[in-house]
Amino acid sequence: MVAQQLGFECMDGQDTKSITVLIAGRPYPLKIKVEDESSIRKIVKEVNEKINHFQLTYTNKDKQDCLSMTVLTYAVELHKATVQQSVKVEHPETALAEQLTQLESLLNRLLG
Q1: Which pLDDT tens digit goes with each residue over 90-111?
Q2: DSSP secondary structure letter of residue 60
Q3: Which of 23, 25, 52, 60 is the most exposed place for a label (fewest CB within 10 A)?
Q4: Containing H/E element for 38?
């Protein structure tokens, strides 16, 4: 069910491919869109790197704790991106003002 929600399960006649990914040493078979394979493999690699980072940083924690912290990291990043996107949609003038301020700051550094 989760795989369907994430768009990994595609039964609507699109070009699909079955792959197995390893996350924290466990295999997960997925049926994905062919064009999504490189993105999915890149994400899996990043997830495994985050898990490994937590395992090395918190050696007294078990793998479940490291998986939980990895999920929390992605949830926080997603939440921040969602909030930023809603500000841009709801208040485009604020987003434009922020971009102009950043551009002005960059120009000042380059010229000054």
Answers
A1: 777 776 787 788 888 888 888 8
A2: T
A3: 60
A4: helix 37-57
**Is residue 17 within 8 Å of residue 31, measured between CB atoms?**
yes
Is-contact 18 31, C-beta < 8 A?
Answer: yes
Output the 3-class SS for 62-104: CHHHHHHHHHHHHHHHHHHHHHHHHHHHHCHHHHHHHHHHHHH
User: What amino acid occupies position 83?
Assistant: V
DSSP 35: G
**Matching residue, tokens 């939440």:** 79
Q: Catalogue the E-assigned strands of the chain.
A: 16-23, 26-33
Q: Model's pTM, two decimal places?
A: 0.65
| Bridge partners for 18 per DSSP | 31
